[in-house]
Design goal:
The chain contains 4 helices and 29 strands. By secondary structure, it is mainly beta. Strands 25-26-15-14-13-12-29-28 form an 8-stranded mixed beta sheet. Strand 14 and strand 15 form a beta hairpin. It starts with a strand and ends in a 20-residue tail after the last strand. About 5% of the residues have low confidence.
Length: about 500
Amino acid sequence: MQYRPRQFNTGLSLIVDPAAQQEADFKLDDPGVYKGWDALIMPANGSYVAYTSSDDMLELYLNREAKVGLLWYGNPADRPSWMSDWQAGSTVKAGGKTYTVFLKNLPAGKNLLHGIDRKAGRIYTVLLAEKDGTPTPTPAVPSGHDLPQPNAYCPDWVAERYTVRLGGKVYPTWKPQIDPVYWCYFGNEHGSDPAQFPQIKALLDSGSLKIPFGNVEDAGNATPMCVSCHQQRLGKSVVKSPPQTFKLFALDDRQGHLWVVKFQLGSSNRARLCQRHHEYGVWAFDRSTGEMLAALQFAPDFGPALNASVGNNTYYKPDLCPDNLDIPMNGEVGRRRIPLISVNGYETWQPSFPRQLGFFGYGRAYNLDNPITRCSDERDAQGFYTCNQARKTSSAYNKGESRWFIIPGGDQPDGGFGIDASRAMATGNFCTNVLGTELRDCGAADAVPQYIKPGIRILHKDQFRWIPYDPWWVEYRPVPSGSVNFEGHNLENALRDPN
């Protein structure tokens, strides 16, 4: 689909991607009285044509009441029964033919639109205007700034609105792929919108919850932290990660808790083989009350970089960090399993969770079905894979990533993943070092604030795969183990390299 705000005008293409859909372009000749309305362009044909009238084809979320039109590409007298209370309006011309628009006022919130019941050869185009039928107004911009153009990339000032202030510093935070006010593209995505849950949104709106990108890295730069990585040779303890590498995972665990996870998880280059520590954060909430139960941020040790295509214990030996071979695999470190470009397979990141912060169980393993890059196949004279190039993944999902996670051993009696206050080295508000393994005075340069509600014991126990339910809010939901099919996060082809 593609949303075109205020663009229902002569010459508008009514096909999202003519080349991909293997048909000639189909353009609007005359918008009639609907000139300047918003247009939501649906897939034109294919399997959608077979949808019956009982199928919910489109979930349409409105933030206010709107007049909605369906540009019907079939006989006006022959349409699905669910459209019987839509009123015939004026006609428009497209592709040299005249078509009727059927109108109805729809309320704010979720609205379900159904299939075409084989009564037309093309899916309707959705038109939207204010409830009185006037086009939506052009949004205002702050003084001194240019108006962002819809369906184009946003100017920097729009992205700069998505920040939080913490400890006197300003950090980027979550933003959508597409700005909902100006409908311009940011060119990257951060996974889940934490505000999709009302309980969490209330905390974000009040300012009592902030999810910064890069604050742990800032603390890490105050003291050497990187045990074995090429950044240390360059005189830096931690490389400052670009904001687009931070991803959020938001979910309802169906066991009484809401979770938000922050993960500095990027697959656009091979630097990920050598940087052992990546910023990570966990926020847990009581689902019924919205009370924050834990807020923990640290930089876990991801241990060695392994070849996911050859075997679980096959090490890479990159020229940037040949001492990757010397990192032991044990319960104190995690691992990164990165596939070769020549072999199908997903990428796995498994953090190490510091027991000093009360973590127990099997942790979580994060998987990328389609990493943006994979390792080249070169080997050195000793036969070690070097990954001396990061090759772009050739895939239908060539932008963005399809990410999911599991709880290893979640089906075991002692399995699951949780936080137990009785096992933590402190509770309430306190500060630790960047690794989350030692207490720090909160005034120290490398101090990271933490919070654990005294007396809590949270357990997320299941054996499912958690996949993103949709590409907009990206709520993670459980599905049984087996095939996991979902599309990459790339709304309206809005992402750019590297993401």
